[in-house]
Specification:
It is built from 21 helices and 27 strands. The protein folds into three domains: 10-345, Aldolase class I (TIM Barrel); 385-478 and 610-649, Rossmann fold (3-Layer(aba) Sandwich), CATH 3.40.50.720; 492-607, FAD/NAD(P)-binding domain (3-Layer(bba) Sandwich). The two termini are 41 Å apart. 31% of the residues lie in helices and 18% in strands.
Length: 651
C-alpha cells in the first residue's frame, strides 16, 4: 500500500488514531460572541469525512484576561458546551477523534477587548501589541491553573476525546518557559526547572480533572527565533520534563513566536517544506512519547518521508487540508494527483485572519462556507452547452463549477497555455508554487470532462457559429499606461511584459525603477527577477512601505532580507508625476518637493484595465452571458475563483 507509514494506527493514551495525519490547531475566526458555531462543526466534520486521523481544534481561552482577538472561543464560560457537542458529534459521525486545544495567550495580547490588564510572567511588552502586562502574583497563578482545569472539564463534558495544552507560539506558558519574557526571581523564574513549574502544575490540574478518559498533549516551541529566547536545547529539556510527569500522552511541536517571528510559524512559499523538521526530530531522539511534526507539508509524500525517516510519529497538515478537505482520503485511494495542493500563498487563510475575517482559501471557495452547503453538487436535469472564454483562474473555476453540476463545458483560451496572470506570477523564482493553482484547476477540469481549446480567440461571430446555451466571459485585464507617461515611451514596460518576454527588456547593468502602486508581489517579484539578472533596481511607491500587503501574507520580513542582500533600493512616499525620455519626476508628498531619477527602464506595477468589450457586445446581441474575474474589475486571484465558482454553479 502506498504511504504505508501514514496509514498505521497509533495510540495516544486512551485514543487510537487510524492514521498519522493530524489537522492541527489553527485560528479560524468562526466564533461568535465567544462561542463555537455551526460553521466550526461543519468545517471540522468536512476534514473528518476527508480522512484525517486526528483533529485538534483552535484554541479555547481559559480566563477572562485572555482576549487577544475578537473572535476567540471563551472556553471558561459553560455556555460553550452545547457548541462543543455540535462539533464533537459532527466529527464523531466519521469515526475520527477530536481534541480541544486550550490556552491563555498571556502577554501576547492587549486589553482592547477585555478592558482588563494583560497577564504575563513579567512586565515585558510584546513587540506587536506593545502593551506592558501585569506580572502575575501567586494568587493569579493559582487562578490561571484553575482556569485550565475548568476549561478542560468543559471540553470533557462537550465530548472531546483529548486536550492539548498550547504552550508554544502564543501562550502565557510559553512566556514562563522563555528566558526572553520570564524575568522572575521567585520559584517560577530563573532555572529551567523553575520556568517549567507553571506547565507541570497545569498538566497535573488538567489530568486530575479529565482522569484517564481523555488523552492529554502538550505543544512546545522548539526554537522561538528571538534574541534570548528558547532554543532547541531548552525545548528538548522541557519535553523531557513533560514526559517525566507521567501524565502526558504526546508532544506536539512548533517554531517561532506568534508575534515577533510569526512569519516562520505560518511560512509562505518562500520557506522550504519541512523547514521545522529539526524540532520533532530532536524531541523524538530524547523522549518516548509520540511526537507531532509540523512545517508546511504540501503532499502525502513529504509526510510519509518524515515518518519513514523517524523524524516524528504524526504529521500536522493544516493548510493542505484547508485547501483540500479530502487530502487524506485522496492519498489513501491512490489519487494523489487529484489533491488540490496548497499554494502556501497565505492570502485567504493567514491573510484573512489578519484582517479579522473568517478563514478561507484562495483556491477552494468552499472553505469557510461549509455550513452553508457551499459547493453542493446539484446535477441539472437539463444539461446546457456552456462556453467559457478565458482559461485563467476565473474561467477555469467557472468551468469546474458548471461541469460539476452536469453541464457540457468548453473553455476557449487565446494563448497556448492556461493560467493567465497566475502562470506569469509563477514564473518568478520562489513563486513557482503559485502555479499549482493552474495545475489543480486543470486536473479537476480533466476529471469532470471539461474541454479546453488553446490558441482560439473568441469574437461574437464564433459564438454565433458554436451557438452555446450560455457564455461565461473571463477575459481578464490588460496593462494600462498611467497618465504621467508621455509619448510612446518604448523603455516603459508593465510587469507582465517583463515576465512574458524574459529575453527582452532590461539587461545586466541597466538602471531600472519599478513603480509599485499595487502593493503586493507584482513589484517586488519583478524587482528581484531584474536584480538577479544584474540590473540596478529601485522600487518606488506612493505608500509608506513597498509591497505593503506583503505583511498580511507574512512575506514582508523575507522580502526585506532578500532585497537587502540583492541591493534593491526601496523608496517610499513618492508619487510619479511625469516620465519623458529617460527622466522620471517624483513628488515627495510629505514635503511637497520634487525628485528626479534618470533610468534606462521604467517597469510599472499599476492598476490594469478590464478587457470587457466581448461581454458588452454579447449583452447587446442578447446572448445569455455572465462575466467573472478581472474583466469585471481587476483584483486578485481569490476574487476570480469566488466569482468563477458562483457563476458556474448558477448556470
Amino acid at each position: 500500500m502506498a504511504y504505508r507509514y501514514l496509514w498505521t494506527p497509533l495510540e495516544l493514551g486512551p485514543v487510537t488514531t487510524r492514521n498519522r495525519i493530524v489537522f492541527s490547531a489553527h485560528l479560524t475566526n468562526y466564533a461568535r460572541d465567544g462561542k463555537p458555531t455551526e460553521q466550526h462543526a461543519a468545517y471540522y466534520a468536512a476534514r473528518a469525512a476527508g480522512g484525517a486521523g486526528l483533529i485538534i481544534t483552535e484554541e479555547h481561552s481559559t480566563h477572562p484576561t485572555d482576549w487577544p482577538y475578537e473572535k476567540l472561543i471563551h472556553g471558561f464560560h459553560r455556555d460553550v458546551i452545547p457548541g462543543y457537542r455540535r462539533i464533537t458529534d459532527a466529527v464523531h459521525r466519521h469515526r475520527v477523534p477530536i481534541f480541544a486545544q486550550i490556552n491563555h495567550n498571556g502577554g501576547q495580547a492587549s486589553s482592547m477587548f477585555s478592558r482588563l490588564p494583560v497577564w504575563a510572567p513579567s512586565a515585558v511588552a510584546d513587540p506587536l501589541f506593545r502593551e506592558v502586562p501585569k506580572a502575575v502574583d501567586q494568587a493569579e497563578i493559582d487562578e490561571i491553573v484553575a482556569g485550565y482545569a475548568r476549561v478542560a472539564e468543559h471540553c470533557a463534558e462537550g465530548g472531546f476525546d483529548g486536550i492539548e495544552l498550547q504552550c508554544s507560539h502564543s501562550s502565557i506558558v510559553r512566556g514562563f518557559l522563555s528566558p526572553a519574557t520570564n524575568r522572575r526571581t521567585d520559584h517560577y523564574g530563573g532555572s529551567l526547572a523553575n520556568r517549567t513549574r507553571l506547565l507541570t502544575e497545569i498538566v497535573a490540574a488538567v489530568r486530575h480533572v479529565i482522569g484517564n478518559r481523555l488523552a492529554l498533549g502538550v505543544r512546545i516551541c522548539g526554537d522561538e527565533l528571538i534574541e534570548g529566547g528558547t532554543t532547541i536545547d531548552d525545548a528538548v529539556e522541557v519535553a523531557r520534563i513533560v514526559e517525566a510527569t507521567g501524565q502526558v500522552d504526546y508532544v506536539n511541536t512548533s517554531i517561532g513566536v506568534a508575534t515577533a517571528s510569526l512569519y516562520m510559524i505560518e511560512a509562505s512559499m518562500h520557506i522550504p517544506p519541512g523547514y521545522a523538521m529539526f524540532i520533532p526530530s530532536a524531541f523524538r531522539k530524547a523522549i518516548e512519547l509520540p511526537v507531532v511534526g509540523v512545517g508546511r507539508f504540501k503532499d502525502p509524500l513529504q509526510a510519509e518521508r518524515a515518518l519513514a525517516e523517524g523524524h516524528c510519529d504524526l504529521v500536522g497538515v493544516v493548510r493542505g487540508q484547508i485547501a483540500d478537505a479530502d487530502f487524506a482520503a485522496k492519498a489513501r485511494a491512490g489519487a494523489t494527483d487529484e489533491i488540490r495542493l496548497c499554494l502556501s500563498c497565505n492570502q485567504e487563510c493567514v491573510g484573512r485572519m489578519g484582517l479579522n475575517r473568517w478563514l478561507g482559501c484562495i483556491e477552494n471557495p468552499r472553505t469557510g462556507r461549509e455550513a452553508e452547503g457551499a459547493g453542493t453538487v446539484a446535477l441539472t436535469p437539463k444539461p446546457k452547452d456552456v462556453m467559457v472564454v478565458g482559461a485563467g483562474p476565473a474561467g477555469l473555476q467557472a468551468a469546474i463549477a458548471a461541469a460539476r453540476n452536469g453541464h457540457r463545458v468548453t473553455v476557449y483560451e487565446k494563448e497556448a497555455q492556461a493560467g493567465g496572470q497566475v502562470r506569469l506570477a509563477a514564473s518568478v523564482p520562489n513563486r513557482a508554487e503559485f502555479g499549482d493553482m493552474v495545475r489543480n484547476q486543470l486536473t479537476e477540469c480533466r476529471r469532470l470532462g471539461v474541454q479546453v481549446e488553446y490558441g482560439v480567440g473568441v469574437w461574437p461571430g464564433l459564438i454565433d457559429e458554436r451557438r452555446p446555451d450560455h457564455v461565461i466571459v473571463a477575459t481578464g485585464a490588460e496593462p494600462a499606461r498611467p497618465w504621467w507617461v508621455q509619448g510612446e515611451a518604448p523603455n516603459v514596460l508593465d510587469v507582465r511584459e517583463v515576465l512574458a518576454s524574459p529575453g527582452e527588456g532590461p539587461q545586466p547593468g541597466d538602471a531600472v525603477v519599478v513603480i509599485d502602486e499595487i502593493g503586493f508581489h507584482h513589484a517586488t517579484s519583478v524587482a528581484e527577477l531584474l536584480a538577479d539578472r544584474g540590473c540596478r533596481v529601485e522600487v518606488v511607491t506612493p505608500g509608506m512601505v513597498v509591497g505593503q500587503d506583503l505583511g498580511i501574507t507574512l512575506d514582508m520580513e523575507h522580502w526585506w532580507m532578500r532585497a537587502g542582500a540583492k541591493g534593491i533600493v526601496q523608496s517610499t512616499d513618492l508619487v510619479p508625476m511625469g516620465f519623458a525620455g529617460n527622466e522620471l519626476t517624483l513628488l515627495h508628498h510629505p514635503t511637497g518637493t520634487n525628485q528626479t531619477r534618470i533610468v534606462d527602464w521604467l517597469v510599472l506595477a499599476v492598476p490594469a484595465n478590464p478587457v470587457e468589450w466581448l461581454y458588452h457586445d454579447l449583452v447587446a446581441a442578447g446572448v445569455s452571458v455572465e462575466r467573472v474575474g478581472d474583466c469585471v474589475a481587476p483584483r486578485r486571484a481569490h476574487a476570480a475563483v469566488v466569482e468563477g465558482e458562483r457563476a458556474g454553479a448558477a448556470v
